[in-house]
Protein: Histidine triad protein
Organism: Zoogloea ramigera
Amino acid sequence: MDDCIFCRLVRGELPISKIAEDEHTLSFLNIVAAHPGHGLVIVKPHVENIYSLDDTLAAAVFQATARLARAVKAATGCDGVTLFQANEVAGGQTVFHFHIHVLPRYKGDELLPFWPATAPNREALDAMAARLRDVL
């Protein structure tokens, strides 16, 4: 897509601080970083979200993400790493080109508020598992 910011980065039209690149993916530092070392891994072809990823791209992006997570941990000395990936507006997606954030995390940094914990009963869990199996 001509106006997609990540497609423009893949085409080399905008500057990036590149970390890695392969046939299917590109990794670079986020210019709006939560911490130094906050990287993004994107798929090179324009794929809007996880629902449209084929198996080849899905495997490639998660392999690249695992490599970047190990590099972020080693290079920053962070206490942990959070992977963040959002789909659709309701899911928090703001750039509509598939990407995964690799966030270095530190004890007490209070990034990314998490959902309130609930404890569904076994029957509700089993019913949802059955619905998901039916769709798969």
In short: The two ends are 30 Å apart (CA to CA). The mean pLDDT is 94.
